[in-house]
Each structure stands twice: as structure tokens, then as C-alpha cells.
Write a structure and sequence with these properties.
The protein is about 30% helix and about 25% strand. By secondary structure, the protein is α+β, with helices and mostly antiparallel strands.
């Protein structure tokens, strides 16, 4: 009987769509990298030689957080491969069971998605992926143990049978309340206010919407948001052991579903838990919300053909028109011009800019300077950011730099931009004639520049937002001091 049951379980797993939610393909990497390995008690850190200092930091952080994460999720790791990739500017991190490994992009995310109090991007993402790795390698005796006799990696794939919001919710819970004080997305209004506004809208996300990945409707990180808030409520109500026990029971009896595991740990079915959770989060209002005057958006779903409106960086082109970057359900992502006269948005050009969405407008040339990703034509998950210009009059593009890894262009007496350099961003001067860049001197360890802006009446003066460790500050500087701004007080 066992010979029939185990192959049947394996075939069933291979045909489960949810299985592939956390399985990523093998990566064909750019050639010429000198790969190194650093071994610790539980990990094998694999990295190109230009990321040695980042590999040492990764090893220290993983071993430091290992026992703390283990108390939350259970699980064990031994010789677990943790791969650092330095060639991809479109930053990400993941854990995959087939083959069982973690991969992290060293370059920092350019957007606002991460709480700066968590530390830098690398520390944040490796801690988050460590939660997934230990969660995935919980192995209580049960049906999954029998699968593991045939293939340990396939056994770990049962991890993906849980709703994605559960997996991400546990990781965001750890990063927010057990890693750094006031760190993590659970303490970051950019992340949390999306849940609060939904909870107060009268059109709350359902139990399923809290946990399932959204491929059609914004926000696309809804399962992170909903999964975190439910997991945090679960921990506050039933304790850390509710997470650890439900993970273990789900591994033992995966085909009964995660709801069955929650029922046995809490004594309530998911519908009852959702009702309790809803009651505790109902009616949220931001401070001062009742006193705020009504606002009529000039661009919203109910008034235009565009649905799922999400616009960024609006800029006046004239008294009657605005420029902005827009993303919608039913229209291309790119730059749009909005006419106040007829309240219509016109697509100027389709593109996917770097996530900070910074661009500069040159009124005399009627041009936009912006940054965008370019996918490597040969190698997977390899995107580099470069500077481009778009002429609004001619409707034409031209590329300013090639493989310089630049973004956030800042025109002025000289063209400045931020540049990806290892795990930080530094300032660079750009020569638009030949498309080359000259970086300013190296920043002290742990310093990364997040944003730069010229003074509107004195373009030689630049305001820099930079982060040192877990603290951010604003420096106003100019001339030679640009290269040594951290020697001054913010």
C-alpha cells in the first residue's frame, strides 16, 4: 500500500498550482564571475569575489538571527546554500525548494517599500528569507516525512501548499516585532496605511483576499499586507506557539488544508477567526480624519476609463496640463499627460522606470530625463538601470548611458545621478556626451544615498537624503563638500 500512496502523493504535488508559488527556476548567470564560498555552522554563502564584505555581513546576520527565527517557526538548516547576486538592479530575494536554496540581490531596492529602521536592504532581505528557509524545512513525522524518503526537496515543497499570505505574514511578523525595534514593514506607514484605509473603506478584503497573491488588482503586495496583519493578530491573541504549531500540523497533514491546522491550534475555524479579526480592526480612522475637508480627485476610477488608478510624481507642464507616471489595471504603465480642461489622461510613452519614480523635466528642451531598467538579452534575472531622455515635442527616446547602473537623474551645472555600487547607492557625475560616469569618492561603510535634489534658486546646492545604519538624515551641501558630506552634521 505504501508503494502506491507515496508516488500518488508526489504526482498530486506536482500538479498543484499553489506549489509553484515559491519555486523559482534555475538561473543562468552572467559569465566571468569569480565565485567564492563561505561556510558557517548552518550555511554556505555563495558569492562573487566583489561581494566578499557583503558575504561576511550575511553570514554574521544569518547565524545571529537563526535561533530567534527558529523559536518562531521551528525547522532546522544544515549547509543551506545562500546565494548573493550582484548583477541585478531590480532587487529581490527568494527561497525555493527545488533545489532548496535562497537567493538575494545585493543591490539595494530604490523604492520606498522597506522601513529604513530595519537597517540596509541586505540585512532586511536576508533576515526575511531566513524565516522562509526555516519555515520550509520544518519536518515533523507525517505524510511529508514519507515524501522526504523519496525527495527531501519535494517534501519541502509542501510549504507552498499554504496560502502565500501565511508564508509572507510570518516573515513580516518577524521582521517587524522580533528583529529591530520599530523596524520592519509592520511599523512602516507606507505599508500599514494600505490595510488601515481598506479596513475603513466599507469594502474590506475577504479572508481569501488577505492571503492570496493579486495578479490583477492593486496593491500587488496585498498578501504581504493582509498576511502580516492577520499573523500579528494571531500572535497577539494566541501567542507565538500558534504560528509554530499550525506550521507543524500543516506539514503533517497538508491535504487537510491550513484552515484545519488553525482550527486545531486555536479551536476556531478560519471563518470564526476572520470574524474576530475583523471586529478588532473595524472602523479604523487616521487621527484627524473626521476634520479633513472632502477632496475630489481629478483622476479616479469612477470618472475615467482608467481603472486601478495609481499615479506618482505629478509635475505642472503648464497651467492646464500635468505630467505624471501612471499605473492602471487596463492601460499601459508609463508617463501620461493630463489635461485639466477636458479631464483626460493621454499616454505619452510606455515604460517601467526604476521604483523611486524620480525624473527631471527640462522646460527649454521640453524633455524628461528618467531612469529605466534594461533586461539582459541572455541571462535570467539580470536587469541594469540606465538614464534615458524623452522629448515630449518629438515623442522620441534616446539613451544617455549604457550599463552604468544609474538612476534618479539630477540636471544642473553638471548632470548628477545615483549609482548602484554593491549594496549601497552613491553619487556620480554623468557625461551625457559620451554616456560615461565618474563616481564621487567612496562613502564610509554603512552609508547609502537615498535621494538628491538641487536647490531651485541655487542649482550648485544639493540636498541629500542618506542613511547611516538605521538612521536617515538630510544634508545640504555644495561644491567639493558633495564628496565628503558625511563629515558634516545632518
Amino acid at each position: 500500500m505504501l508503494k502506491l500512496i507515496v508516488p500518488a502523493l508526489i504526482l498530486l504535488l506536482l500538479n498543484t498550482d499553489l506549489l509553484f508559488g515559491q519555486i523559482y527556476p534555475n538561473i543562468y548567470r552572467t559569465p566571468g564571475q569569480d565565485w567564492q564560498e563561505l561556510q558557517t555552522e548552518h550555511f554556505r554563502i555563495l558569492f562573487p569575489s566583489d561581494a566578499e564584505s557583503d558575504a561576511i555581513r550575511t553570514a554574521r546576520r544569518l547565524e545571529l538571527e537563526y535561533p530567534n527565527v527558529q523559536r518562531l517557526t521551528g525547522g532546522t538548516l544544515r549547509n543551506f546554500p545562500f546565494i548573493l547576486n550582484t548583477k541585478n538592479d531590480l532587487s529581490n530575494g527568494f527561497v525555493s525548494p527545488l533545489p532548496f536554496r535562497a537567493e538575494v540581490d545585493v543591490p539595494a531596492s530604490a523604492g520606498k517599500s522597506m522601513n529604513p529602521r530595519s537597517g540596509d536592504w541586505l540585512e532586511h532581505v536576508i533576515t526575511h528569507e531566513l524565516v522562509h528557509a526555516l519555515h520550509m524545512n520544518v519536518n515533523p513525522f507525517g505524510l511529508t516525512s514519507l515524501i522526504g524518503l523519496y525527495s527531501p526537496d519535494l517534501r519541502r515543497s509542501v510549504h507552498s501548499a499554504a496560502p502565500l499570505g501565511i508564508l509572507e505574514g510570518v516573515a513580516v511578523e518577524y521582521e517587524s516585532h522580533q528583529y529591530r525595534p520599530n523596524g520592519g514593514r509592520g511599523n512602516y506607514p507606507w505599508f500599514t496605511q494600505q490595510f488601515h484605509s481598506n479596513a475603513a473603506s466599507g469594502n474590506r478584503w475577504s479572508m481569501g483576499e488577505l492571503f492570496q497573491f493579486s495578479s490583477q488588482t492593486l496593491p500587488f503586495d496585498r498578501h504581504y499586507i493582509g498576511g502580516y496583519f492577520f499573523t500579528h493578530w494571531l500572535v497577539q491573541t494566541y501567542g507565538d506557539e500558534a504560528v509554530r504549531k499550525s506550521i507543524s500540523l500543516h506539514y503533517q497533514l497538508p491535504f487537510l488544508g491550513y484552515g484545519f491546522a488553525l482550527r486545531n491550534v486555536t479551536g476556531k475555524w478560519p471563518s470564526e477567526l476572520y470574524q474576530d479579526f475583523t471586529e478588532e480592526t473595524r472602523g479604523f480612522r487616521s487621527p484627524g480624519a473626521e476634520e479633513t475637508a472632502p477632496i475630489r480627485p481629478i483622476l479616479q476610477d469612477a470618472q475615467t476609463p482608467l481603472k486601478g488608478v495609481r499615479i506618482r510624481r505629478p509635475l505642472w507642464l503648464s497651467e492646464e496640463s500635468l505630467l505624471f507616471h501612471g499605473r492602471f489595471y487596463n492601460s499601459p504603465t508609463g508617463f501620461y499627460r493630463f489635461s485639466l480642461e477636458n479631464e483626460r489622461a493621454e499616454l505619452l510613452t510606455e515604460l517601467q522606470p526604476v521604483e523611486d519614480y524620480r525624473y527631471s523635466y527640462l522646460p527649454e528642451e521640453n524633455e524628461i530625463l528618467y531612469s529605466s531598467y534594461r533586461a539582459d538579452p541572455l541571462y535570467d534575472r539580470t536587469f541594469t538601470s540606465d538614464l534615458y531622455r524623452y522629448n515630449l515635442s518629438a515623442g522620441s527616446h534616446s539613451r544617455i548611458t549604457s550599463d552604468e547602473r544609474l538612476y534618479a537623474p539630477l540636471p544642473g551645472p553638471e548632470l548628477l545621478a545615483l549609482q548602484t555600487h554593491g549594496s549601497v547607492s552613491r553619487l556620480a557625475a554623468v557625461n551625457p556626451e559620451n554616456g560615461t560616469s565618474e563616481p564621487y569618492p567612496e562613502l564610509p561603510p554603512g552609508v547609502t544615498i537615498r535621494e538628491a535634489l538641487r536647490h531651485p534658486e541655487d542649482p550648485a546646492t544639493v540636498a541629500l537624503i542618506a542613511r547611516i545604519g538605521t538612521r536617515q538624515g538630510i544634508w545640504v551641501t555644495s561644491g567639493e563638500n558633495l564628496a565628503h558630506f558625511t563629515s558634516e552634521k545632518p
